[in-house]
Amino acid sequence: MPTTLTERYIAATIRSLPPSAQDDVRAELEASIADAVEARVEQGESPADAERAVLSGLGDPAVLAAGYADRPLHLIGPRYYLVWWRLLRLLLWIVTPLAMGAVLLARLLTDATAGEAIAASVTTGIGVIVHIAFWTTLVFVLLERRGAETGVTWDIDRLPEPPQNASGRTDLIGSLVFLAIAAGAVLWDAVRGFVRVDGEAMPILDPALWPWGVTALLVLLVAEAALAVRVYLAGRWTVPLAVVNTVLAVAFAVPVMVLLLQGRIVNPEFVRYLVESGAEDAGASAGGIVATVAVIVGVVIVGGALWDIVDGWRKALSARSPAPAAPRREAVPN
User: Could you state, in order of their start, the residue ranges of all structural domains in the chain?
Assistant: First the structure.
């Protein structure tokens, strides 16, 4: 005997439910479907059309079964979504650049070409992004299905400070990118050299600066990056942050100027290479080249340090100044 649409619908609904709940759900559905069909027949519909209309109105049996079982039909629901999204962004921002930078540095130190090092770094970054996204999402899917608590709750104290201006994030990203490029350029010059002479690397900076001088410079660059992050998190410049900025600017400019005046910044071999490559034919000498480079670099360093200090103090003092009061409006007589 062929089964009816109602029997097929009920069977499709209860098959994914626990055995202990199947009989109760079956009885409830049989009664409610029968009442709904009877009501439509009394209004003039045929039994077959009434049955089809009632079952169509109930919708997909899997959705109905999920409602009976209190089982979510989404990957990550609103209960866990914000926690998942915030954690995922944090991991991507921290782990991905660190992994890419580590691979890039490791490849450069093993005599790989620039193209090979960059390709390996990008490939690693893509793999890290995929793994972080997959495993983080999987953890929250399991939490969603089990109904477990994440332990993260929101309260009024978690409200962030309003940023001083809308460009705070842009300034942070720009600063970090510039510092990363500067650090990479210094490391590349010290390890691989920007100039190749007869297949041999020739650094532009004096090799005597390696490793302690270069390490000190990298430490200052990391400190500058940490300061940029701190300013962004604070939402504005403060007097203590301006003091730290001044100390870092002086700590960078003074030693560099001393080394520059002593002629210990530019690699002497690089200067000799420039002279032998044709600068001498143009009437230039090694001493003249060094003096010209020293003047240019000195002006850039001193000017940049002074601008950085003044800009930091200007922003800090501006943030301390109270906002001007809004002008009072005189009452308009009626």
Answer: 5-69, 75-151, 162-319
